[in-house]
Structures are given as C-alpha cells and as structure tokens.
Amino acid sequence: MIGIGSFGSVYKGTLDGGETLIAIKVFNLMRRGAFKSFLAECEALRNIRHRNLVKVLTACSSVDYQGNDFKALVYEFM
C-alpha cells in the first residue's frame, strides 16, 4: 500500500510481466459516498488528457471472494 484516501486505498503494482508500474486505487464501498466518487472519477477522467494528469489505464468493477462489490481504477504510476 502506498496511500490511503477518503474513499479507498492506493497500491503499487505491475503489468506486462513487471515492466509497467501502475497505481491501483481500490474504493472502500462501505464508506458513504465511495460508489458515487468512483462513478464521478470515471466520468471526469474518461475524456481528459493532459500532460500533468496521470493516465487512467482501466477500471475494474467486480465482486470479491466474499460476494462484496469491488471497484478500482488503474493508473500509470508516477
């Protein structure tokens, strides 16, 4: 884990066999407003491209092993 924010935690990871560093923001959906924050962040970052903003690589929406909703955003690592 590299950080904790209002609506979740951020982890450092890799893609492409360890060649690409990424940051994974996992939303704590038990916290009030986290789901709305996830949707707002997806909507806001979907079409924004700027040299001073990290690039969103993908979004994840699934169910974890306990049957709870799971939402995460995967960013390029800076």
From TrEMBL:
UniProt signal peptide: none
A GO MF label: ATP binding
One matching Pfam family: PK_Tyr_Ser-Thr
Compartments where located: Membrane
GO cellular component, one term: membrane
InterPro entries membership: Kinase-like_dom_sf, Plant_receptor-like_S/T_kinase, Prot_kinase_dom, Protein_kinase_ATP_BS, Ser-Thr/Tyr_kinase_cat_dom
Protein name in the entry: LRR-RLK
PROSITE patterns reported in the protein's UniProt record: PROTEIN_KINASE_ATP, PROTEIN_KINASE_DOM
All copies of domain Protein kinase, residue ranges: 1-78
